[in-house]
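dumping this here before i forget
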Amino acid sequence: MAELWSDQARYATWVEVEVLASEAQVRLGRVPSEAVEDMRRARVPAAARVAEIERERDHEVLSFLAAYCEDIPDDSARWVHLGMTSYDLVDTALGHTLARGTDLLLRAARRLRRVLVDKALAHWDTVCIGRTHGVHAEPTTFGHKMAGFAFAVDRSVQRLLAAREAVAVGTISGSVGTYALIDPFVESYVCERLGLGVEPAPSQVVGRDRHAQLLQAVATLGACVEQIALELRLLQRTEVAEVEERRSSDAYQGSSAMPHKRNPTTSERLCGLARLLRGYATTALEDVALWHERDLAHQSVERVVLPDSLSVGHFQATMAADLVETLAVFGDRMRAGIDHTRGLVFSSAVLADSLSNGVERERAYRAVQAAAYRTATSGEDFGVTLGKEGMDVGPLDPTRFLVNHGVIRSRLESLRDLED
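structure:
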């Protein structure tokens, strides 16, 4: 990803666009074929040379063209960039780069999806407590938790695919996008060979709503990763201790002052990166509105937010997959957590049984609630306090809540066979 967004890679893509545009002009009979051969033989200009020229000209595209043409005979160099304006080159190359960058991010997101599916299936029967508002609710399984995250990442993959289609476009339409000095064939020729669509009504530039769509998709994936990381942070708290981030070395140290510390720092980093991605997504929305056919206010912003968003998103998804893949899961602690409230998590099952036995709902609810309060304040087991309310219950088994759990597993298995 870093290489893709380097200055040298950008100039290599610009050369590719210029050569393809000149090939199209040859087919139209407007550029001699030997000129294109000279363009193909020319080296990609060094980023340092472009920067040197730019210090004098204060225009990157013209500086690039000057550096590029230094390696092309004069008779051929005059045909470079024929009929084009700067953003014909910049935006078409950018569409190609964004498509490739999104492909890298998609690969990382698909791996994260697969790792989550694998972890979910491996712990499908690892019973744990479900929590609402941070408070014990009813039993579920750790696999169920992971399944929810897997489907969230899958939805992000679908959003990224749609965003890739949106940004994988180019335009070679000349100043203010009217094709006044260039045949539309050049645009279709170049974009087809780069695997790009064509901006249907160019204003000289590609619409920046396309880039905003991509960064919203990246930020949403980041938020999904944050949700996973936050859950793991909460489950690693000392008083919970149901999972732990694996450390790759015995040399690990969690604190300069407290040798016992084993902290969920990877999860914390993932949450922090999600904040950064949301900021970039908001900034991309600011780039959508340009003056008239175009201005340049977006350009300085894009040099930061586009490569950074894809790079941070890729790093975050890769780190998240590594974290989930190596995560230590403590099933005994999870099972013990269900017993922590001495049976209170079975209150809904007891209520349902009472209703099935013909007890009026308000009476049944109040009786179960009174028994639950006595358990919470006295330390007695829930079964004992229920008996004091005149309610005779059998064994309280957490698997009772999972009788229909298989329907979710069957949905999860549909993700397992998706192409990475």
